[in-house]
Amino acid sequence: MSEDADKRIKLVKNEADKMVEVMIDGKLFTAYRYPENIKKPVLYPLVTPAGTKITRKFPLEPSTGERVDHPHHVGVWFNYGEVNGLDFWNNSDSIKVEDRAKYGTIVHKSIEATEDGDDQASLKVTMDWEAPDGKILLKENTTFVFKGKDSVYTIDRITTLTAASEDVLFKDNKEGMLGIRVTRALELPSDKPSIFTDANGNPTPVEKLNNEGVNGKYVNADGIEGLDTWGKRSNWVNLFSNIEDEKIALAIIDHKSNVGYPTYWHSRGYGLFAANPLGQEVFSEGAESLNFKLDKGDSTTFKHRIVVANGELNQEDLNVMFLKFSEQ
């Protein structure tokens, strides 16, 4: 048996299915996935310590009672809506062939290292941000650090982007950067018409939504709640809900060293939960602008922590997590 065979947190490579599973105490927490049809690597699913999947299944798995909007919203991802004029955020197989020259793709290149452990496990990967003609705009080196104990699991995503072949401009845009698409129960209640998967998994128009069991709520570090968290700066945002008797909290924590700190939040009621430090002109309605630029050969690093918990995460808990994370 290998030395790491009895470690609590393990990474299991599956090259045939293009993924690395993250197991905590023998149970799936998440998986790093890099199939070719979703235009960027993602983490999918996110699973609570009690075993409940909290990411939307569509479009990766058959589902019932889920929205079928925004097919580019898959699991947990990191990209941006305008990079040298190309849209990396909205790209998916649903884009018309004649429009694909406007979109960029993030391509998984290699798994550099994996390390299991009792307190944490780490996964180091490389990716290329590619233009439609194959030109590499950005080289990405990302380290994921996975921790989990009792009722709280965390993921640190530490991403270094390097301008590879030319200067790179991230024009202010609301579509960015670290995004999560959550399951229906974590959405905020809504009665607007939409299109959902029916019992057979087929897209079906619904005139009035059934909000039974849908009780998600956002709150940020300043105590701002609900949809009012959208377009506000904050050190963190927490999305909490319950699925039957299971209380669930899902938080994203910013880091003081990030460009654009404190980040703006792209927090939508229909289940999109994203931190966007680079969309300042949009979120401030023109009062600010950033238009962040990397000169050829230069790099920047973004650090975020995702917290998945059973039970409640209060303001004090998250403030302490933020301060400790920003010391790293």
Could you write a compact summary of the structure shown?
The chain has helices at 280-283, 315-326, and strands spanning 9-14, 19-24, 27-33, 42-43, 76-80, 105-115, 120-130, 136-149, 152-163, 168-170, 176-181, 194-197, 203-206, 217-220, 236-243, 246-253, 264-267, 272-276, 292-294, 299-310. It is 5% helix and 41% strand.
How is this structure best described in words?
This protein is mostly beta strands and 328 residues long. Helix content is 5%, strand content 41%. The chain has helices at 280-283, 315-326; strands spanning 9-14, 19-24, 27-33, 42-43, 76-80, 105-115, 120-130, 136-149, 152-163, 168-170, 176-181, 194-197, 203-206, 217-220, 236-243, 246-253, 264-267, 272-276, 292-294, 299-310. The strands form five sheets. It has an eight-stranded antiparallel sheet, with helices on one face. The longest helix has 12 residues, at 315-326.
Descriptive tags:
328 residues; mainly beta; 8-stranded antiparallel beta sheet; globular
Query: Low-confidence spans: pLDDT under 50, at least 5 residues?
Result: none
Described by the principal axes of the CA atoms, the overall outline is: globular
The amount of helix comes to: under 10%
Structural class: mainly beta
Tell me the total number of β-strands. 20
Following the backbone from N to C, one meets helices and strands in this order, namely EEEEEEEEEEEEEEEEEEHEEH
Radius of gyration, in Å, reads 19 Å
Report, as a whole number of angstroms, the end-to-end distance. Answer: 34 Å
What's the total helix number? Answer: 2
Strand content range:
35-45%
Q: What composes the largest sheet?
A: 8 strands, antiparallel
Q: If you average the pLDDT, what whole number results?
A: 94
Q: Order of strands across the biggest sheet?
A: 6-7-8-9-20-16-15-14
